[in-house]
Amino acid sequence: MPLKVKIDWNTCIADGVCYAICPQVFEAGPDGKSQIVEQYRAGSETEGNVPDDLADCVEQARTACPTGSITVEKA
Ligand code: SF4
After folding, report:
1. The ligand 1 atom nearest the CA atom of 15
2. What's the mean per-residue pLDDT of the chain?
3. I want to staple 36 with a disulfide (CB 3.0 to 4.6 A). Which of 13, 26, 47, 48 is the partner?
4. Could you report the per-residue pLDDT of 22-57, keeping only the tens digit for each?
5. 3-74 architecture in CATH?
6. What is the reported pLDDT for 1?
7. Ligand 1, residues at Cβ distance < 6 Å
8. Residue 75 in this model has a pLDDT that exceeds 80
9. CB 71, CB 3: distance < 8 Å
């Protein structure tokens, strides 16, 4: 089952932690805020469907995000 990953730009402080940890899924977007890499994007820059084999990477980024801006659900 893929993962639904969302980034909240209202709270993201653009510190780059998530895309340093998991560049397979996250990258720098406008003003350094995090966005989903194009390959996994679903509808907008801040939403993605990510394959299960990247679950560990996504989870490490989610837990390391200092503002809790990344949410992950089973799709
Ligand atoms: S770790 Fe969190 S606050 Fe930092 S860039 Fe990523 S989503 Fe934004």
Report:
1. 4
2. 97
3. 48
4. 999 999 998 999 999 999 999 999 999 999 999 999
5. 2-Layer Sandwich (3.30)
6. 83
7. 7, 12-18, 33-34, 65-67, 69-70
8. no
9. no
CA distances to 2, 10, 12, 30, 70 from 33, in Å: 23, 10, 6, 6, 12
* CA–CA–CA angle 35, 21, 2 (5° rounding): 60
Residue ranges of domains in the chain:
3-74
- Asked if residue 60 lies in contact with residue 21, where contact means CB atoms within 8 angstroms, the answer is yes
C-alpha span between 26 and 43 (Å, rounded): 15
Q: Which atom of ligand 1 is least distant from the CA of 64? A: 1
* pTM recorded for the entire structure: 0.96
